[in-house]
Amino acid sequence: MTTNRPVALVTGASSGIGKEAALALVAAGFDVVGTSRDTSRVTPLDGVTFLDLDVAGDASATAAVEQVVKRFGRIDVLVNNAGVGSLGAAEETSLAQAQGVFDTNVFGVMRMVNAVLPHMRAQGRGRIINISSVLGFLPQPYMAAYAASKHAIEGYSESLDHEVREHGVRAIIVQPAYTRTGFEANSGKPDSPLQVYAKGRQTVDRVMAAAIRDGDAPTVVAEAIVAAATDAKPKLRYTAGPLAGRASMLRRFAPARAFDRQIRKMNKLAG
């Protein structure tokens, strides 16, 4: 089977940002393939074909891409949305836990990119949209492993974009702020909690819960993803929503001391 419509592959499409992105891409005229680690639990979405995929597995990533190409004959857009969260102080987070975060959030993206790039280069076109975060350019106390994974995505994506541009492919970053999803409930807790960090961790946990509760709807991020997929001259980075835009301005223009104080104030940390 081949199609004349553009084809988008969206990882982690069963809920939250991935689900809304898949639906928004359908509305924008794409044939959309969404992925989930267990499609038997997925509620069907109009216009979206679902495949099983665990981005933490090499064979799974390769097989999913091959299935899409076999069925549709092309892949025009890859949205690397699948990810996991991690809460807790850096010292409380075991290396095994941090490696698990990176295996999905960073190496999962790399697996999907390596699987899809040969097809996009052969087509002479394609867009790879990597979902980062404002924590890809801001520090976040008590989420060091997660922030590190998103900082890694920023550097990887920008470097990748320079490599593939001459082949008609672009690598693009979308940076959401706090979004009303199940992020907090689905984030890993520290393996080895330490009493010395308990007060700060609990304070930041409450700040994060409130920020997510009052955050942007996933549709706001979906709009940025569609823009990244369809703009005639795409930008390298798309901030998703006004809060993400303000955070980007803060990082770029605030003096270092003022920026440091603001991060502590936002997280209600002493000193």
UniProtKB/TrEMBL annotation:
<comment type="similarity">
    <text>Belongs to the short-chain dehydrogenases/reductases (SDR) family.</text>
</comment>
<dbReference type="InterPro" id="IPR036291">
    <property type="entry name" value="NAD(P)-bd_dom_sf"/>
</dbReference>
<dbReference type="Pfam" id="PF00106">
    <property type="entry name" value="adh_short"/>
</dbReference>
<dbReference type="InterPro" id="IPR051911">
    <property type="entry name" value="SDR_oxidoreductase"/>
</dbReference>
<keyword id="KW-0560">Oxidoreductase</keyword>
<protein>
    <submittedName>
        <fullName>Oxidoreductase</fullName>
    </submittedName>
</protein>
<dbReference type="InterPro" id="IPR002347">
    <property type="entry name" value="SDR_fam"/>
</dbReference>
